[in-house]
């Protein structure tokens, strides 16, 4: 067990739904999602990317279905993948019906832009017949004309009103197997919308800052926005939206959850920025260890601190710790207890070995 405990955040209790084998809402763990960027009709490439995302830790993966060939391709894709698949549908209700019939575990739709109530009713029937959940996806960039005329611009109240209107469409058809998102590229707009919506309903919420940007800027915006909501107990599943390799979205998603001690996967490295006091090359050491330990799935905390100012204190709170010492004598700690002294040249191999032993210990328990 990791020394650092999971944070006791007072998470709002929402209704629980299933996206395939993954529970969302209620007391289920907060799941991490991503989305493929391959052409869905390129079945082999899409399967390969889904498997890469699953290997990185994605609990759920979304796939675009812009045309009939894409929605029908889902049948072959789902046969050869293990993670639940969400079909991303916009405007054309037949794509949603085809996706549900092809085995999609969830449909991402905006019921308001699907068309008439009859078309929405047909989509919901297909979802019911195929045990398929739905995500109501409200986005500031695609609000309906009526709401834009009413509010003059995208704002939290407009997003929430759109969500409430769509909720009513589904509830009127006796359909309750859904989650909701109210996304914007603006952090303040997004967080306020989710807070208002969370107080207005108890359906599970899918968090995200949409179109957040590049790997660096998008990760920062997503961390600020989703971190704010998660710390306030809001959110049941998350997707980091980056202009980057989708695998990076999964990694950043877990880093957000790890930073809040909500959910851990793999190595959580606590390391100093390095300074003139460092007794070994901290930055290089951390970079190498991240690569060498990237395959670890078990939650393990590792502190890499360059000197004795904060090193022993951090090591007392981690599974494995390293504190820089004088004369090339650095101290290794196990579960906060001094273990052995080590020279700089042996740091990498010794830590890798200790982590591998810790993994074996966790698995045996």
Structure, explained:
The chain is of the alpha/beta class and 365 residues long. It has 2 domains: 17-259, Dihydropteroate synthase-like (TIM Barrel); 267-364, Sulfite Reductase Hemoprotein, domain 1 (2-Layer Sandwich), CATH 3.30.413. 41% of the residues lie in helices and 19% in strands. The protein has 12 helices and 15 strands. The protein has helices at residues 43-56, 68-79, 93-101, 117-129, 145-151, 156-172, 187-200, 215-231, 246-259, 282-292, 311-315, 347-364, and strands spanning 17-19, 22-24, 31-35, 60-64, 85-88, 106-109, 133-139, 178-183, 206-207, 237-239, 267-271, 300-305, 320-323, 330-334, 337-342. The protein has an 8-stranded parallel sheet. A 5-stranded mixed sheet has the order 11-12-13-14-15. The termini are close together. The model has no long low-confidence stretch (mean pLDDT 94).
Global mean pLDDT: 94
How much helical structure, as a percent, in the residues?
40-55%
Count of the domains: 2
Distance between the termini: 9 Å
Count every helix, treating DSSP H or I runs of 4 or more residues as helices: 12
Q: So, CATH architecture of the largest domain?
A: Alpha-Beta Barrel
Which class of secondary structure composition applies to the elements? alpha/beta
Detail the poorly predicted runs: none
Give me some keywords for this one.
5-stranded mixed β-sheet; alpha/beta; about 375 residues; Sulfite Reductase Hemoprotein, domain 1; TIM Barrel
List the helices and strands and how they pair.
Layout lengths: L16 E3 L2 E3 L6 E5 L7 H14 L3 E5 L3 H12 L5 E4 L4 H9 L4 E4 L7 H13 L3 E7 L5 H7 L4 H17 L5 E6 L3 H14 L5 E2 L7 H17 L5 E3 L6 H14 L7 E5 L10 H11 L7 E6 L5 H5 L4 E4 L6 E5 L2 E6 L4 H18 L1
Parallel strand pairs: 3-4, 3-10, 4-5, 5-6, 6-7, 7-8, 9-10, 11-12, 12-13
Antiparallel strand pairs: 1-2, 13-14, 14-15
